[in-house]
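task queued by scheduler; priority normal; single chain, no ligands, no partner chains; default sampling; output format set to structure tokens
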Amino acid sequence: MKAPSVIDEMLPLEIEEFLSWMVSERGRAANTVAAYRRDLTAYSVWLTARGTGISSVATDDLIAMIGVRRAAGLAPSSIARQLAAIRMLHRYLVTEGERADDPTANLEGVRVPAGIPKPLSEADIGSLLDAVVGHDPIARRDRALLELLYGTGCRISEACGLSMGDIDFDGRLVRLFGKGSKERIVPFGRTAAAALDEWFAPGGRIDLAPGQWRRRDDATAVFLNTRGGRLTRQAAWAVIKKYGMRAGLDDAHHHLSPHVLRHSCATHMLDHGADLRVVQEMLGHVSISTTQIYTKVSQERLWQVYRDAHPRALAGA
């Protein structure tokens, strides 16, 4: 008998109640709950195929599931994410009295290799920003977008979500809404301020504004597309790729990603002596350990410079 697919599987009531609790009691965002639903649907499919269920699954079953996932070549980060959803579900069931025991309680976690972001060098950042030439509306928009991304370390989604009321031009401050709609105020420098001023001056944003706004949200958007709508994350990502190619940064030696300017901002600030807590606050990291990843980058770069520059760094090697 063929195991049910993820699409046609009916979720057990325990999972549906857990997902509802995540929304009503924990206030989790729709995207977060959707991710939990996908992982727990896959979990339910696996339990059915194994001939067990939510109320009877044991620790040994979960160990076997992890083994199957690994054998299938699933990335450790994906297995760890699925396991996190399963742990949350079973803790909830114990709290609600649906199960007396938690089969995940003594389950070892899945080790995920620490990924160190690969920032661009300061010279590469300069080349990327210098690749925006001209003063037409698109060039002004793209220059303002890239300068703001690098100047504040904000996420692309945060930049695209900006409304004009979120920017204090006199104080050179921007209000950003991060994950979970958490608000933070971040400063930006003179270069980003000049780029934004040009974008909002005649010949800039106003030239992309339509005769009639399709949505009220578009009318207040900081960054517009060519049709007069709010710039999307995908379009902003395309902007980075476009100028990365112009600057010759699209080869195997450079890592262009949606977060490349954010990574570079954090690393360069730490390189120049910024306090780790300040960078944490600026990037909107909940945990300082997330920000500490960038200290590893800086240390690696320090060693690279030392090996390349010090006459006795490789003596006797």
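post-processing summary
- Strands lie at 167-168, 173-177, 183-187.
- Residues 1-8 have pLDDT under 50 and may be disordered.
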